[in-house]
Amino acid sequence: MNMAEIVIAVALMFFLLISLHEWGHFYFARRAGILVREFAIGFGPKLFSVKKGETRYTLRLLPIGGFVRMAGEDPETTEIQPGQTIAVRLKDNLVTRIYIDRLDERSDVLRGEVRSLDLEDELHIRLDADGDLQHLKVHPQALIVGRGQEIQIAPRDRQFAAKPVGKRAMAIFAGPLMNFALAFVLFGFTIQLTGVPDDSSDKILIHGVEANSPAEAVGLRKGDWIKSVDGQPVGGDVDAFIRMIAASGGQPMKWVVVRRGEELTLTVATGEDGKVGIYPGPEMRAASLGESLMFAGESFARWTGIIFDGFRKLVAGDIPIDQINGIVKTTEVTVQIAKTGFPNLVHWAAILSLYLGIFNLLPIPALDGSRLIFLGLEAVRGRPVDPKRESMVHFIGFAMLMLLVVFVTYNDIVSLVKK
Fold first, then answer.
1. How far apart are CA 93 and CA 138, in angstroms?
2. What is the pLDDT at residue 200?
3. Residue 22 catalytic?
4. DSSP 147
């Protein structure tokens, strides 16, 4: 891949990992009947925004995650108090829009003083229009318009907290679940792209050549069959071949490679790092569906263990906090992996998706794991934790996560500048 293709592929990869996670929340929230106000990729100021149906889809400045904002999770609608003057627009005898400012500029509206209202349960407004007291029913999708924005009301049965614990838990767990599903699919897709070793072959092929390496300098290419080194047949033992290179001591070697049936003799020497810059491997054959599923399962289990072991070492202090990679370092690593080929990028995307799913299930305030713990407590106690206390816990957790993001991003930039 050239650099333009790499940039596009890396951007699409991160977009896929984040958007699929948020789509999981979105889909199961909608399925539970919860009003989803916003589906956002990124945090911070909006770069792009479009509303479709009840949901506003936004792309935000900071590409460090995303969120799905559900009705009832946060203070959301503009407060309308008895005694306040408002204007309403009716359609089929139902209030469809409630205006709270610039009332003189509104046309085809009924204006009056609010005597009482209920926008969650009974959905009604008692409005005193110049001495004429009117009892108006409100449409369940009515909009409150004011201060340059439109906010749809959320009847209680459309709010997150009104749904059964099981449905709420599914809406939260669905984000990581989508990442796990994507990881499994991408692990299987990787083996479809690369194939599996052909046991009937005794050849070693070059599966990749590093840029600016000795191998690239002498013209070695992906797909070349390495037949012999210094007159000694290589065979199909990759480990033995690597030992042959190490035994050269940096001296030039005569390699015989076969390319499209033609033998080529090339002089190859290791670089300062003692390597020639190739990715050798056995001859491959196409993988069956069963082999792909088996590889996906094995990779999923193996990398899950590796990720948890990394968390264990971090908690134990075996990994200093200043060595945690942030978005900058992760992007740099991703670009380097993309340069080695599309299959490697797919495999790396599977690992990142699995990591994202596991990380979000950690019991850290503001993450999905913490929210599931609160739902678990509610199921055990038979009543929810005080929403204000839970919101405070998540707010503090989110603030701490943002501080950590700033810290690791600073370290990433410093290490990048020092190179």
1. 9
2. 86
3. yes
4. T
Residues composing the chain: 419
Does the pLDDT at position 361 exceed 80?
yes
Question: Residue 75 — very low, low, confident or very high, per pLDDT cuts 50/70/90?
Answer: low
Would you state the structure tokens that stand for residue 31, as one six-digit string? 């399925």
Q: What's the token pair of residue 86? A: 């408002």
Q: According to the model, what pLDDT value does residue 322 have?
A: 67
CA 104 to chain CA mean position, Å: 46
Supply the DSSP symbol for 213.
S
CB 6 within 8 A of CB 335: yes
**Which of 22, 38, 54, 210 does the annotation list as catalytic?**
22
Contact 67, 74 (CB under 8 A): no
> Quick one: which of 347, 330, 337 has its CA closest to 1?
337
Domain map (residue ranges) of the chain: 1-31+160-195+288-419, 85-153, 197-285
SS (H, E, C) the chain: CCHHHHHHHHHHHHHHHHHHHHHHHHHHHHHCCCCEEEEEEEEEEEEEEEEECCEEEEEEEEEEEEEEEECCCCCCCCCCCCCCEEEEEEECCEEEEEECCCHHHCCCCEEEEEEEEECCCCCEEEEEECCEEEEEEEEEEEEEEECCEEEECCCHHHCHHHCCHHHHHHHHHHHHHHHHHHHHHHHHHHHHHHCEECCCCCCEEEEEECCCCHHHHHCCCCCCEEEEECCEECCCCHHHHHHHHHCCCCCCEEEEEEECCEEEEEEECCCCCCCCCEEEEECEECCCHHHHHHHHHHHHHHHHHHHHHHHHHHHHCCCCHHHCCCHHHHHHHHHHHHHCCHHHHHHHHHHHHHHHHHHHCCCCCCCHHHHHHHHHHHHHHCCCCCHHHHHHHHHHHHHHHHHHHHHHHHHHHHHHHHC
Supply the pLDDT for residue 28. 97
What pLDDT does 264 receive?
A: 95
pLDDT, residue 274, reads 86
Structure tokens, 360:
């979000």
Fold of 197-285: Pdz3 Domain (2.30.42)
Tell me the Cα Rg of the chain.
Answer: 30
- Confidence band, pLDDT 50/70/90 cuts, at residue 419: low
Summarize the chain as % helix, strand, coil (round to 5).
45, 30, 25
Bridge pairing between strands 132-146 and 94-99: parallel
- For residue 267, pLDDT over 80 is answered with yes
Q: What's residue 77's pLDDT?
A: 55
